[in-house]
Amino acid sequence: MPNPTHKTVLMMPIHRRGVFAMSLLSSILGWFGQSKAAVPRFANISEFRELVIAALQKRKDVSRVAADPNDPAKIQVEIGRSSVTADVSNVFQYLNAYPMEDAQALINRFTRSIVDGKAKSSDDNIVAVVRTRRYIDLAKKSGIEILYEPFSADLVIAYMIDAPDSLSPLPPSSIKGRSIADVRKVALRNVRAWLPKVKADRGLYVIEGNEMLSSSLILINEFWKSIEGQFPADILVVLARRDQLFLFDASNPRTAVLARQLIEVTTKEQVNLLSEKLYLRRGGKILVAD
After folding, report:
1. What is the pTM (predicted TM-score) of this model?
2. Element (H, E) at 119
3. Quick one: which of 17, 131, 163, 200 has the most CB atoms within 10 Å?
4. Which residue, 250, 274, 267, is CA-closest to 155?
5. With 50 as the cut, is the pLDDT of residue 211 above it?
């Protein structure tokens, strides 16, 4: 008899539209820690986890919620026949870094992403995102199946399901014999549809309304063509956060210092981390900067 419980492990649910959005100006100020809260909003992650547990317990579709006794950031959630392990670290870090955000709204969206995390894929909701090989290795160790392919340097193209409140990994089994080239075509088309929503300010590029696709802009030829007049030569690329893309003129010696400082500040914030490396776009290819 088959096991009636399907177990799924979520590393950190990847939130989408507007959840981690902040103004472009505050992002720039954040380079220097000016947007950081002087005092943490929540004393510790265990305290914050209790708020998330309380929100999950109010949902009728959740049959059981329990704090993980071995990890203060994790929650065991039973939803129908599925058992899910959720991690509150990303939301906790974000709310402590940006205390002006609506905590309850974020918690509610977070719980929806957990409960609705098994979204079905279709040609309308498959997207391509940029991740590192380390991300893929960690996903595999956690038992998460995700369709991906090499991109450049240590980066990969990972395929996700773009649900209303989260991005969910697209398992290889869901493409039903289609080639990865076919999936790539569909996924990039869906990312390309967001190009009219790109906002820029002093080197920062974000997709307004779907910030978690901002780093995916480096996959889109039309995006590079639209900004080529601003960058006559090589471009420094900062992919420190999944919801932000920073580009700098590599011919200016000061920009490398700024870029590395930005990566350092972002790493300390521990919010939506993507890569601690500095990249260089040269001849249409993404390389690791020396």
Report:
1. 0.76
2. none
3. 131
4. 274
5. yes
